[in-house]
Design a protein that fits this description.
With about 250 residues, the protein is of the alpha/beta class. The protein is built from eleven helices and ten strands. It has an eight-stranded parallel beta barrel, surrounded by seven helices. Strands 2-3 form a two-stranded antiparallel ribbon. Helix 3 crosses helix 4. It comes from Sutcliffiella tianshenii.
Length: about 250
């Protein structure tokens, strides 16, 4: 699947023309995640579908979900912009950026400089770079280009092997441990525990995927995660804000 997605991205990039730059107020993704009001920062994701789970939310309305997230006090919003596999769009991101005052992370499979420039132009505050689909050289190049364009970067990694390797090239400011193996779709929050001790203390550790309950949140926080990235649990709850409150232990789990 991952190989297939990257192939699709190559085709998309070869047909990509840069859109005009939208004028938006930038927010620091990095600073937002260090919310002093709680022990774990929250990046709340919106995604209509995923290759592993199919449709997650039939009545998917990005502006509405963004409003829920902002009202309930999440620290940042992640918007899936991949169309083919996640049923998202760049337009979703632009709408969310326009209607909220939160930092917005562009969640996509970025393999080329053009996509980095595009992300800045559509108003993203941060981008995801997946170490498992990039060489060290490419990852570092795209990372630097993003920073030069004023974007924060969430560098995602799944295996210890890939993590150790990339740390020999550079130390990202934010590292996300994806608890989901994108090749097998197996999800296990223990991945965060296994990798946490190898991540430099100066790096902000984000635990991504498979965090469904308050217990999961407490667990990854005890492993050293300073922030979490959660999507599915919020898409499947009665409303995204109820999902957020449940995750923080303010309501019982259904
Ligand atoms: O829906 P979940 O299990 O809470 O996971 C959210 C997020 O971590 C996941 O969507 C994700 C993490 N890395 C990715 C890379 C591409 C697409 C999606 C992702």
């Amino acid at each position: 699947m991952l190989t297939k997605i990257v192939e699709t991205k190559r085709k998309e990039v070869s047909a990509l023309t840069l859109p005009p730059k939208v004028l938006v107020r930038k927010h620091s993704f990095y600073e937002a995640l260090q919310n002093p009001n709680r022990t774990v920062g929250l990046i709340a994701e919106m995604k209509k579908a995923s290759p592993s789970k199919g449709i997650l939310k039939e009545s998917f309305a990005p502006i509405d979900i963004g409003a829920h997230y902002e009202k309930v006090g999440v620290d940042a919003i992640s918007v899936l912009t991949d169309q083919q596999y996640f049923k998202g769009s760049k337009h979703d991101l632009m709408m969310v950026k326009e209607t909220t005052n939160l930092p917005v992370l562009r969640k996509d499979f970025i393999i080329d400089s053009l996509q980095v420039q595009e992300s800045a132009r559509i108003g993203a505050d941060a981008i995801l770079l997946i170490a498992e689909i990039l060489t060290d050289e490419k990852l570092f190049q795209l990372y630097q280009e993003a920073v030069e364009s004023g974007l924060d970067v969430l560098v995602e990694v799944h295996s210890l092997e890939r993590l150790s390797q990339l740390l020999q090239t550079f130390t990202p400011a934010i590292i996300g441990v994806n608890n989901r193996n994108l090749k097998t779709f197996e999800t296990d929050i223990e991945s965060t525990r296994k990798l946490a001790s190898y991540i430099p203390s100066s790096t902000l550790l984000v635990s991504e995927s498979g965090i469904l309950t308050h217990e999961d949140l407490t667990m990854v926080s005890s492993y050293g995660a300073k922030a979490v990235l959660v999507g599915e649990a919020f898409m499947k709850d009665i409303s995204p804000s109820i999902g957020v409150r449940r995750l923080f232990g303010e309501l019982e789990h259904a």
